Amino acid sequence: MKSSYLSITARYLALALVALLTMGPFLWLLSTALKSGSENIFQYPPSLLPAQPTLENFWRVIDTQPFLLYLKNSVLVAGLAVAANLIFASLAAYPLARMEFRGKNLIFILLLSSMMIPFQLLMIPVYNIAINLGLQNSYLGLVLPHACTAFGVFLMRQAFLGIPRALEESAMIEGLSRLQIWWHVLLPLVKPSLATLAVFSFIGVWGDFLWPLIILDDPGYYTLPLGVNRLANTFSMDWRLVAAGAVFSILPILAVFVFSQKYFIEGAMRGAVKG
């Protein structure tokens, strides 16, 4: 009995250490953003708790840079990209999971293989396509590369495979079409997987820096990552403002994860055990 208590204690101590290492950079970033101008952020030994906490750095960031515009652009682009990925990925996954046709396995293998190709290799042809379509400096140009991902198709295929075929057959007997079955029968049963895909998609689009940097040259379409980079160039000597801008861009991701945590964990576990 004593050994089991020691094992549990050691396990929780290890988890607490991992959590501390994971949260440490964010806590330090938040501490820097809350420190006043009279405090030395490079002092040794370092101090995590601000001596005089203040929100002045956040207000200065909003006053000197159009961060609310960057926030609006990020919310719009992330929202459209997540919605498009949920729809198109689930549409593409449905025939791969529930229908039989020639070449289905080959298509799925090619789809999985595409996940190993880094975006840097596709960057130039995707950029040329976007320019030829007139998508530079547009929201559509920011959204389209994220509109449907191979990971999303894979995740939704695994979710659809876990649904009994009897439900689909009953719907066919009732006269529902394939599209109606997908919308009214299958999608309501894979909400945890949809939430998981939504969280992953949102994080990926929200933190994307390289593609907006390439496709945009109009500051009116800048997203938060570009805004924080512009802030770092403007206030390169005042890391309090840079930290405040970084915290400002991280908070929406934390909010999305907190509100979807239940579905996210359930969907991740379901995708991990389905074959």
Automatic annotation (TrEMBL):
It is a multi-pass membrane protein. The chain crosses the membrane at residues 12-30, 75-94, 106-127, 139-160, 181-206, 239-260. It comes from the Bacteria. Keywords: Cell membrane, Membrane, Transmembrane, Transmembrane helix, Transport. Gene3D superfamilies: MetI-like (1.10.3720.10). Residues 71-260 form the ABC transmembrane type-1 domain. InterPro entries: MetI-like, MetI-like_sf. CDD domains: TM_PBP2. It is found in: Cell membrane. Belongs to the binding-protein-dependent transport system permease family. PANTHER family: ABC TRANSPORTER PERMEASE PROTEIN MG189-RELATED-RELATED, LACTOSE TRANSPORT SYSTEM PERMEASE PROTEIN LACG. This is Carbohydrate ABC transporter permease. It comes from Microbulbifer flavimaris.
